[in-house]
Amino acid sequence: MASSKDPFQFQEFDEDGSLMETNRDATTIRIEDDSTGPQKQRNAAGFSPDGDDEDPRGNDDQAELLSGQRRSTPFWTFEYYQKFFDVETHHVKERIIGSVLPWPGKNFIHVYLRRNPDLYGPFWICTTLVFAIAISGNISNFLVHLGKPNYTYTPEFSKVTIAATAIFSYAWLVPLGFWSFLLWRNNKIMNLVSYSFMEIVCVYGYSLSIYVPAVILWIIPFEWLRWCSIMVALCLSGSVLVITLLPAVRDDHPRVIIAAMSTIVVLNILLAVGCKAYFFSKPENIILTEHGAPAEVIKAMPTMKA
């Protein structure tokens, strides 16, 4: 019969402290599970053991992608417009080249935007055009009066404000009006091509890129050169707008088509001619008239008295 005190039987030992009290010379070795070490380290560093250390926003985005739905954001937030500035540089270059060199049959939205409009290119094109108009207008005014006695150059900073108001109003309000017009016509005719507001804004923004080199040429004080550059810019910019926006109203009534396209072309002409007339007018003619008119009055007064 086996002894009740078998030396090979497993026994439960007390803590290290009690063992050290019974035998001072004993050496204790603590063996821990390998899986508990890293877990304790993560807990000590502040990570939760249940996998909560992962980014919950990443899990939400992944769930939205898997479900095929994205969380919609209000249009008055910066997050809504952030996606319109996420564009590659080569895409911006292609769109600028496509707006400067339009080709019949190539719809700018279908060929270059591909349902991915951006605001990066239109914003910087409009900003560049604003400063190009203001700076070129000041330089042109300086060159016209250069060498004249009693002339002191004074920079006209108000031209920047006026140019910005005109350019950005054209680039935003006109697309808003055309988009509202399309919504109104779609309620009457269901088979019309539908463009989003951002796509129309993108088309109008890129269509202004041809005016940047044209405005720089307006520094040269030759009226024939200025009008030639205006005609070229009007033809290229207007062609982009007509070729792209015509399919949106092609199935509408002929009178509506003519009215819509005529409005687009006329507003484009008014912008170009208005900027040329206001920022690049002939101030020397006004000065001569102001000095010439009093001289004529003085000469005429003695004749009237006699």
Walkthrough of the structure:
With 306 residues, the chain is mainly α. It is 66% helix and 0% strand. The chain contains 13 helices and no strands. The chain has helices at 16-22, 36-45, 56-67, 78-82, 89-100, 108-113, 120-145, 158-188, 197-207, 211-217, 223-249, 254-279, 283-305. Helix 10 runs antiparallel to helix 11. It is globular and about 105 Å long.
Shape: globular
Number of helices: 13
Strand content: under 5%
| Intertermini distance | 162 Å
Radius of gyration: 38 Å
Provide the structure class. mainly alpha
Identify the notable features of this structure and list them briefly.
306 residues, mainly alpha, 13 helices, 66% helix, 0% strand, disordered C terminus
Quick overview of this protein structure:
The chain is an all-alpha fold and 306 residues long. The chain has helices at residues 16-22, 36-45, 56-67, 78-82, 89-100, 108-113, 120-145, 158-188, 197-207, 211-217, 223-249, 254-279, 283-305.
